Protein: DUF4283 domain-containing protein
Amino acid sequence: MSTYLKSMAGYKHNQLKTKSFKDIQMLFDKEMKRVNTFVDMDTELVKGSETRTEGSSKRAGEELESENLKKQKLDENVEAEVDDDQEEAEMKKHMEIVPDDEVAIDAIPLATKPPIIMLQNIDREDLETLWKLVKAKHGLTRLEEGYERVLWGDLKVMFEPDVESEVWRNLQGYKVTVWKLFSSSGVHFVRFQNLHIFMLVEKRYPLTPATITEMLNKKLQADHWNEMCYQLLKLMTK
Structure:
């Protein structure tokens, strides 16, 4: 015990030679107890390092996941932009740039020329006001003659389309000669061989697939490519 205390606990020979066996044993037991409860500093460092490593790994994992999410979102946005560009390119195949003053007016009957000329110089708010005035003056009574009859009929079909109306049945089998968009008023005009219709861009009308195909094949005329062209063509192709 004395040898152990001198070697391991740092006691001097002079400190131990005068002590009794009981004292030596007490010192030895105390030293052994300390040894048995000792935790190596390296172990604590390792545990602390492991804890820090776990924390660092967790943060690194979270950062990596965040970066992956950002990259995935960026990739999705790029893919969406590519898809949008491809879709826009497809839409443009059904459209041609034609200035308003170059529309084939001569091919359109005289009775429908005034509404077309009007739509080149009117905005949507004025168009809606015009319909309210015409409707207030004539109600739902079908006029029989003159320019007012044409105007009343065109506006009624445009704003209050009736699925059961003979207008839509008469479209069957007729070839499209002109399909024109008036961006200022949000109206597109379709001229067939023997009749015509004016339609609001955002409204759905009872057009048959065959009629829509005829319109797309003829191509939409507009003075420039814009969001309204895109939305109208997207609606028609879907």
Q: What stands out?
A: The mean pLDDT is 79. Residues 95-237 form one domain. The longest helix spans residues 41-92.
